[in-house]
Write a structure and sequence with these properties.
Layout: H1 5-13, H2 17-37, H3 41-59, H4 64-87, H5 91-112
Helix pairs in contact: 1-3, 2-3, 2-5, 3-4, 4-5
Length: about 120
């Protein structure tokens, strides 16, 4: 279960931008796994919500090109959230979200620069 939004925000914003992007990548990676494997659609919805907030709290501090891509991902996440109740019942839709979330996770990790050191 996602901790309270405000506690999550406080803890998240203590980290430097690369670590926040790494945290976003980790959340999106979990989303990829859970979308593919979970039988509880609420688990996926919680991770979608968490990722949406992490992007909101990160994009403003990122370079403009990265911020633009994060906002585009956030828009797609919002669309998934709206459709998730129905989409969660269709294996192909869960697989599509899983593949998208893996791509988003990889992008966030690239943006973080954490693998370059």
């Amino acid at each position: 279960m996602m901790p309270s939004k405000e506690k999550l925000r406080e803890r998240f914003l203590r980290d430097p931008l690369p670590r926040r992007l790494g945290g976003l990548a980790a959340t999106l990676g979990r989303l990829s796994s859970v979308a593919r494997e979970s039988t509880d659609p609420l688990n996926v919805a919680r991770l979608l919500e968490e990722a949406k907030y992490l992007i909101e709290w990160t994009a403003a501090d990122a370079q403009p090109e990265i911020a633009a891509e994060l906002v585009a991902i956030q828009t797609q996440i919002t669309l998934w959230l709206r459709a998730w109740d129905k989409a969660s019942r269709v294996r192909e839709q869960r697989t599509l979200l899983s593949v998208q979330a893996k791509y988003w996770s990889d992008r966030a990790l690239d943006f973080s620069g954490l693998l370059e050191t």
